[in-house]
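Agenda item 2: phosphoenolpyruvate complex prediction
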Amino acid sequence: MLVVMQSQATEAQVRAVCEQIESLGFRAHPIPGEGRTAIGITGNSGTVDTGSLESMPGVVECIPVSKPYKLVSRDIKSDNTIVRIPTPCGEVTFGGKAIGIVAGTCAVETREQVFAIAERIRTAGGRLFRGGAFKPRTSPYSFQGLGEEGLKILAEVRERFGLGIVTEAVDDDSLDLVEKYADVIQLGARNMQNFSLLKRAGRARKPVLLKRGLAATLDEFLMAAEYVMSEGNYQVILCERGIRTFADHTRNTLDLSVIPAVQRLSHLPIIVDPSHGTGRRNKVLPLSRAAVAVGADGLLIEVHHDPSHALSDGPQSILPDEFDRLVREARDIAAIIGRTLN
Ligand code: PEP
Ligand code: MN
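Presented output:
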């Protein structure tokens, strides 16, 4: 159920409606839009008695939301959500005219490695640095990440290069730490349906970068975002990172058609990760070009200065020089479709 407020409704009127919703035993989610505020109601398994709400000052109408996802839906908010990430070198936005780039290493290996890559990302104009301190690996014998030590190195990167930090949390304990050290909490493909972790991220105060599950349908992807939003965190960036298909010429099949499909159904920004999406260095640039052209709100790129010695995802990591070129070409393609680069 959705309560649509008049465009001139006051904050006090919105608050009063929220209080009424809560007093009925539901949860209220006021979502301000360009023209008006809508208040999503969750926690209702049956129908809400809308009589008491519809007669309140400032209310236009109550409308049922038929889709299984409610807060992520364009029904509640017709204009795009812009997720804003303050970094020491300026604000990065996802979902507006400007396209955001997240770039860096798959895993934080050493301070030297991370600093060498971060320096090149910064020089190329990057503002958000990624690096995993907690790595969800297929094999328990593969490098699992440096843990909190890695987060401390990332905090040094912010300090030294002015880059905002994006890093993955794999469980509640790591999420507590990631929330403390990073600017954006990444939830990986393998955890897209870890519902308790999604709820924990929904209670966090930092934006969430939610990657599509290894074989998730569009509805499952949006429902995962709904879990985060249902707990009150509305700063969600979706990320297409390829799905498992019969094709074996790439690591995954990058589903670029999901970008316009998501944008039609949801107001949330969606970015593309061609690194995990292809698993092959030589395919990252072509698919980055395509992602920008198809209308993605951003890119997530793995870069390594010495990929043959990388502890994780070396074959898909591009070299810093290739990243320079990628940024230049992404900017040129963005301009053709009336967008810019953050
Ligand atoms: C990553 O971003 O390094 C990662 C593990 O990605 P995914 O969850 O998409 O596999
Ligand atoms: Mn990786």
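Discussion summary: The pocket of phosphoenolpyruvate (ligand 1) is lined by residues 106, 132, 136, 188-190, 211, 241, 276 (CB under 6 Å).
Owner for follow-up: CH.
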